[in-house]
Design brief:
Layout: H1 6-9, H2 20-26, E1 42-53, E2 56-64, E3 74-80, E4 87-93, E5 106-114, E6 117-127, E7 133-142, E8 148-150, E9 156-157, E10 162-173, E11 180-188, E12 193-200, E13 208-212, E14 225-233, E15 236-243, E16 259-266, E17 271-274, E18 279-280, E19 288-292, E20 302-307, E21 322-323, E22 330-335, E23 338-343, E24 351-354, E25 365-366, E26 371-377, E27 382-388, E28 395-401, E29 406-413, E30 425-429, E31 436-442, E32 445-450, E33 455-460, E34 469-474, E35 477-484
Parallel strand pairs: 1-21
Antiparallel strand pairs: 1-2, 2-3, 3-4, 5-6, 6-7, 7-8, 7-9, 10-11, 11-12, 12-13, 14-15, 15-16, 16-17, 16-18, 19-20, 20-22, 22-23, 24-35, 25-34, 26-31, 26-35, 27-28, 27-34, 28-29, 29-30, 31-32, 32-33
């Protein structure tokens, strides 16, 4: 793995032509996605500023142009009319090269539209002359021309009673109150993950520290909480966040997670009262930093997009100097005391050709590089293998044990292995058995939706030339496959 110097990681991009050769090279990679948003060059991670504004969806992502490294971060801007097909608009927020409040990166945040302007709230990653980190919550205003105007001063700096790890502002408007809140992921000085709350009656001014969010029973879940959000879905409050540096049952060696707690939020006392346990959002291997759109009007659902990746790990395309993509957008609703995640209905627009299933002598079907697979499954055990060779060997195994009422996803059969320390299999109990699978396969990923959204498994995979078959080994299933059309135009736009 390449070792990056500090100067290389935090080099400022002066001219798009500086990364043109890199773009030309990585655009030829076999693992460039067909219908997922991905880094134009270098590294993509957290989705930011997800919002409906000016009659279209806006989404930004964290971008480091130089390679698969977490260095100097920009906000890259993409838009969509339907959350299916996307258009790249290029870089939006740029860190200030001088001694500005974001001189070492415009880090993650959120957005809020008011009138004909959109306000972008982000973490300014500042390093002083001794390279000590100072976090600032910064504001920029995006006008009709699409170019941001940064406010000269931050809204506030890091709170001195917590460590330097204070980031990812989420702007929240409460319809029942004449004020706004910003919540920040943070770390206490005794190394506990916490959420800090700020309050103002003006989006642009007057922000004051309101206090630390109290979450009874969850005072020691990881040592840092990233990307916090409080959503109201179907009459329920949902606290979403990413607890770091803790292992969880069934999650292998993974130490960074994305999940949620159902409960009720009292803004007067800054107390989130849990109604149940911490649940992971995605049971797969590669999902983190989920962001919900900030201003949809349907109170019964939310729309979520996450980074298809994890902190502190590497991927095979790192050697090609690029990494990262985003998940498909999901519709969130509440069923019982759990969140349900479904693919958006609009994603059916991507369907191109419905394939006639013709098995070879080994009982295998050709698996297109970009496709949707749907199975209706009768009661009993079932096993489906994706990315096998022509003989049905290897690949990713999706197996359901009806006696244990448990589904297992195992990617240990793939030729290209990575992040083995995170674990090679994931399990999920299914109280009502397995009846339906809807699977989205792209050139280097698979997203598996179980039982109409009861669970989702998201994973990066990097199949070789020989790993392009699938086989339903056991069980009784009605199977359909569609090829899928491109959703993002591959173009050099910085």
């Amino acid at each position: 793995m390449r070792e990056w110097t500090r100067e290389e990681k935090y080099r400022y991009l002066k001219d798009p032509q500086e990364v043109k050769e890199l773009y030309d090279r990585i655009s030829r990679s076999r693992y460039r996605q067909t219908f997922h948003n991905q880094a134009v060059t270098g590294l993509m991670n957290d989705p930011n500023g997800f919002v409906w504004f000016d009659n279209r969806w806006h989404l930004f992502y964290q971008w480091c142009p130089w390679g698969a490294v977490h260095g100097l971060k920009y906000w890259y801007h993409i838009v969509s009319k339907d959350l299916v097909t996307w258009k790249n608009l290029g870089v939006c927020l740029l860190p200030d090269e001088a001694d500005g409040y974001d001189n070492k990166g415009a880090y993650s945040g959120s957005a809020m539209p008011i009138g004909d302007k959109m306000y972008l709230y982000y973490t300014g990653n500042h390093r002083d002359e001794d390279y000590v980190r100072h976090a600032y919550t910064c504001l920029a205003r995006l006008g009709p021309d699409g170019w941001p105007e940064k406010y000269p001063l931050p809204l506030f700096g890091a709170h001195p009673d917590y460590t330097e790890h204070q980031r990812d502002p989420k702007i929240i408007a409460r319809p029942d109150r004449d004020c706004y809140y910003i919540i920040i992921g943070a770390q206490s000085k005794d190394k506990r993950g916490v959420v800090l709350v700020y309050q103002s009656d003006d989006l642009q001014h007057g922000w004051t520290f309101a206090g630390e969010l109290k979450v009874p029973g969850f005072e020691h879940l990881g040592d840092m909480w990233e990307c916090p959000s409080i959503e109201h879905i179907g009459g329920h409050d949902v606290l979403m966040f990413c607890p770091q540096h803790i292992t969880l049952p069934g999650r292998g060696g993974s130490r960074n997670h994305n999940g949620y707690i159902m409960g009720s939020m009292d803004w007067d006392t800054l107390t989130f009262t849990p109604d149940g346990q911490f649940h992971v959002l995605d049971f797969g291997f590669d999902s983190y930093a989920a962001a919900c759109a900030n201003n949809i009007e349907d109170v019964d659902k939310a729309i979520l997009i996450a980074w298809m990746g994890l902190p502190d790990v590497s991927y095979p395309t790192d050697f090609e100097d690029w990494s990262g993509c985003l998940t498909l957008p999901r519709e969130l609703t509440v069923r019982g005391r759990r969140l349900i995640q479904r693919p958006l209905p609009e994603l059916k627009k991507l369907r191109d050709e419905k394939l006639e299933l013709k098995a070879n002598d080994a009982g295998c079907f050709t698996l297109p590089e970009a496709c949707e697979v749907e199975l209706d499954i009768r009661p009993g055990d079932c096993e489906l293998d994706l990315f096998t060779d022509v003989h049905g060997e290897g690949g990713v195994s999706i197996s359901y044990d009806d006696g244990e009422k448990e589904i297992t996803i195992d990617r240990s059969g793939m030729e290209i292995q990575f992040n083995e320390s995170e674990g090679l299999s994931r399990k999920r109990p299914l109280e009502n058995g397995l009846s339906h699978l809807r699977i989205f396969v792209d050139r280097s990923s698979v997203e598996i939706f179980v039982n109409d959204g009861d669970a989702v498994f998201t994973s990066r995979v990097f199949p070789t030339d020989d790993e392009h078959y699938m086989r339903v080994k056991t069980g009784d299933a009605f199977t359909r496959i569609w090829t899928l059309k491109p959703a993002v135009k591959e173009q050099f736009l910085i």
